[in-house]
Design brief:
Number of domains: 1
Strand content: under 5%
Helix content: over 70%
Number of strands: 0
Distance between the termini: 15 Å
């Protein structure tokens, strides 16, 4: 399980910049998708980090 959570945490490092780039675009639809990606990446990153630390025994 720790491996899957670690992979998810690494993917968050890709999702966050992608969301930031999309959120700074001029088109409203792309901007909205960017903010959606940011919200989900941050919330899922926090959840994954909590479970990763619990699985690590820390």
């Amino acid at each position: 399980m720790r491996i899957v959570l670690g992979i998810n945490l690494l993917l968050q490092c890709i999702y966050l910049p992608t969301g930031i780039i999309m959120a700074t675009r001029a088109k409203p639809l792309v901007k909205g998708f960017g903010f959606g990606i940011l919200v989900s990446a941050i919330s899922l990153g926090i959840i994954d980090a909590i479970f990763y630390l619990r699985a690590s025994g820390q």
